[in-house]
Amino acid sequence: MTAARQSIFYIDFLRFIAAIAVIMIHVLGPFRYLYGEIPDSDWLAAAGLNSLTRWAVPVFMMISGALLLSSKALSPKKLSSKALSQDPSQESFKWGPYLIKRVSKVVVPFIGWTIIFALVCGYMVDGVFTGQWSSNITMDTLGSSLTEPVWYHLWFFYDFIPLYFVIPFLLPLLKQASADHIKLALLCWAILFLMHWLKIGDFLQQNLVLYSGYLVLGWYLFNRDNREHLKYWIAAGSFMLLLNFFGSWYVATEKQAYSSLFMGYKTLNTAIIGGMLFVLAQTYAHKIQGRLRALVTLISTYSLGIYLVHPLILIPIRDLNNGFYQVFQSNWIAIPILTFLTLVGSLLLTMLLVKLPFIRRLVP
């Protein structure tokens, strides 16, 4: 889901797992708020898998920072002020090509799919497909699209597109900054996340600031050899995953309702998990070979299209009256299988759409 498509396999692998995680989050969505209304096992499957996959969107942001803030990967070595300030791979910034080649690749699909899903909304009443189109609903939905997404997955663009206008200002700053400056900036960013999580200092809780940190973290990890600190990332990330799962379970039993306390994209636990996955992929993804490697690359290539089209496939699935989940008897089985089937369907649909002359611009 980044504009750049550099052939770096561990980046492809990160797109691959993030695409699957996003689909899973949306497959399990109807059950999150049904605590006490469905069997505990089914609710825990949904809430638990949700708590373990919330890193998906932050990982996409980290990939964007890694690629768009780096003209190419530095050779594996420790990040130093010399490596940053004297990197000959950094090209002079030109705003015209940047807007055309980078920003338009995100803005055009966003506008196109906003219109498409607004048309779909014309067929929906209270989340249920009626089969009868209402122009009034479509027009009202389009009218409100300036401030809120027309479909649940399009929220990403409202926070992601502004980051493209942060990148040109980060480029010269990161080029001149020393390693210690970068580490201090990332530490301050982590503190802001913690403050946001604990609801301290509302004036600092701005999406642009907090999400921009993912860009820098992705760039930072991308341009250094992280193997020395891998064990620390694994320890911290694994702890946060366990905290997410059992913490969400505990809070729900205390409140007798679903809680998103551990689910936010702007929380320190999510950032740490994202960092762990980035470093793990960077270290071990090269071991994937053969057909699995080809599959990872294929899904990575179409990841933006998959992200955009999969909610269409989920419309009948997420309607609990249709009984798709019940076929599998348990959500522990239903959610992974429906995630896989949705992934396959979305991939095939995206591969079809890219063959159509006009529509292919909407699924780059």
Structural account:
This protein has 364 residues and is mainly alpha-helical. It is 63% helix and 1% strand. The protein has 15 helices and two strands. The protein has helices at 9-27, 40-51, 56-68, 81-85, 95-121, 135-143, 155-160, 167-176, 179-197, 207-222, 230-255, 268-284, 290-301, 303-318, 331-353, and strands at 124-125, 128-129. Strands 1-2 form a two-stranded antiparallel sheet. A hairpin with a 2-residue loop joins strand 1 and strand 2. Helix 1 packs across helix 15, helix 3 (56-68) crosses helix 12 (268-284) and helix 14 (303-318) packs across helix 15. The longest helix is centred in the N-terminal third of the chain and has 27 residues, at 95-121. Mean pLDDT is 86; it is low at 2-6, 72-78 and 80-90.
